[in-house]
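The authors assume throughout that readers already know how a fold can be written as discrete tokens. A single example would do more here than another paragraph of explanation. An entry of this sort, consisting of the sequence and the corresponding backbone structure tokens, reads as follows:
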Amino acid sequence: MSTFHFIKWTVIVCGRRGCESYDPSTHELRYAGDRWTNIATSVTYQLYYYDSKITNALIILHVEDVAADTPAPYVTQSVRVTFYLANDTIDNIIQLSGSPGYVWGRPVIISTADNNHTQHFFNNTYKSNILTIPAARDGKCVLTKVSHRIVQFGDNKQIKCRLHIEKKISSNATNTCDQIQNIIFELLKLNQTIQISAYGDPQYRVNKNWLQPYMFEKQQIYGRFYNEQTILSCSNLVTRIGYVFAYINVGDAIGGEGSEIVQVNVEGGAHNVTLLVEDAVTVTGDMLVTVDTRFIDVVGATVTEYGVAPHLNIHLPKSFFVPSNCADKRAAGPSYVRLTLIFTIMYMNSART
């Protein structure tokens, strides 16, 4: 005699404001005059099975708005089906990034707790326990529960995106620039203190396995209004950051496999930014934000980490550089240019041996 086991679907809707349970009165497809709302551009099926039966079935709808005047009458929809061998949902399952060292391509583990980082990690006290950076969606910077990029161990990446600024100005230009800097730091999650796990399994060497990143030293920010307060100029705004992870391979030493992160630096790049002031009350504009992640093996053999600079044969015309040979030697200066080109080329060997 056969026994049937039935479960109900659980439907979750995720948008830019986060995720919530599906409600037909709120999340049905609607036409709002200039756009279509709640269009599911991505559908994820998560099926959990344990003891030879499916215990949980979850549908996650990633929705967004689409402009009604979009030239193409269609939108692209991605569908993903994942099976998990587990007796609980993936949100409540503690996922490690190695045993005990980090495995290539696994998320970098963080803690935002004030203390007892390992305990909070395994108790799943804070849901945000992996390092994320903004994603570029249509060129715009987005960092939400749905749209983000996970920093994966060993994956050197650079993300560039545009951050739209719309902020009421204060009477003091420097104060306004400081507020804009805070918006950037809030996007990049630099307004909170984090600890980074040295191992893919934080339970290994509990007392020595969390690292506080070395933060860059911020420069003094200066602001100034120009052109009858229609232009705001901000000097020394940090619009580029880089996470630099120094690691060592510790597989043989710890009797397992993987790598240990021994130091994390957060570097900052300051730039001068100019924004428009509309109606003398609101500063608005887009600025380019760059985020780099770099992983450096600090004990790797030099011959495997750095390649010899290649020999380059370059033939350039005399008029390529200024000053150069020309008819009017008085205007051009010397009749020749002594040029020294120094090429420093670093080859990072990303292949694992």
